[in-house]
Design goal:
10 helices; 3 domains; single chain; 181 residues; mainly alpha; globular
């Protein structure tokens, strides 16, 4: 569900007054991650309302003096076969947590797969969308369709939809760009 600008302002004001993100998420029907992004100004800045400025954990001089933390390389995307195995095992009665531990993925990855937000890497090179698909996707999003719903409709991942509706990919195609003034 996409919140109106007035709802975003109300949410930010209530958070500034001391409401917890989890409570706001439940009341507004969005995830806690969405609330966090809104109150920190990572999304929908133009909607208005107070934005929390996170306190810096370290000054720039402290950061320079500390040794670099261990960098964990990003794992390659899961294949469609791996995603299908997770779906089958959970559908067969195994707990999501047990499947996650056994396969070495996070429980959040399993939740994303089971909800349809994550589909796995296809064996064919990156999916190409037609100009018509991109414009239709952007138009539906501007009319309130969720990124997850569009991902299912266009048989892609939510992250791909996010990049398309924000103009980060397929910038040369038309349609309304989310967040553009």
């Amino acid at each position: 569900m996409r919140l109106s600008d007035a709802e975003v302002v109300d949410l930010r004001e209530r958070y500034a007054a001391g409401a917890r993100q989890v409570e706001l998420a439940e009341e507004f029907g969005v995830s806690q991650n969405t609330v966090s992004a809104l109150v920190l100004g990572r999304t929908r800045v133009a909607a208005g309302g107070p934005i929390k400025v996170p306190a810096s954990r370290k000054s720039s001089t402290d950061t320079m003096k500390t040794p670099p933390s261990k960098v964990h390389p990003r794992k390659p995307p899961m294949s469609t076969e791996q995603v299908n195995e997770i779906r089958a095992r959970v559908a067969g009665g195994e707990s999501r947590a047990a499947v996650a531990v056994e396969l070495g993925v996070s429980i959040h990855t399993v939740h994303s797969i089971m909800s349809g937000r994550r589909k796995g890497r296809s064996e064919e090179p990156g999916r190409k969308f037609s100009e018509h698909d991109v414009i239709r996707m952007r138009t539906l999003f501007s009319q309130g369709a969720s990124q997850s719903d569009l991902a299912q409709q266009f048989d892609t991942q939510q992250q791909a939809v996010s990049q398309i509706v924000r103009g980060q990919s397929y910038a040369f195609y038309g349609g309304p760009i989310a967040g553009a003034s």
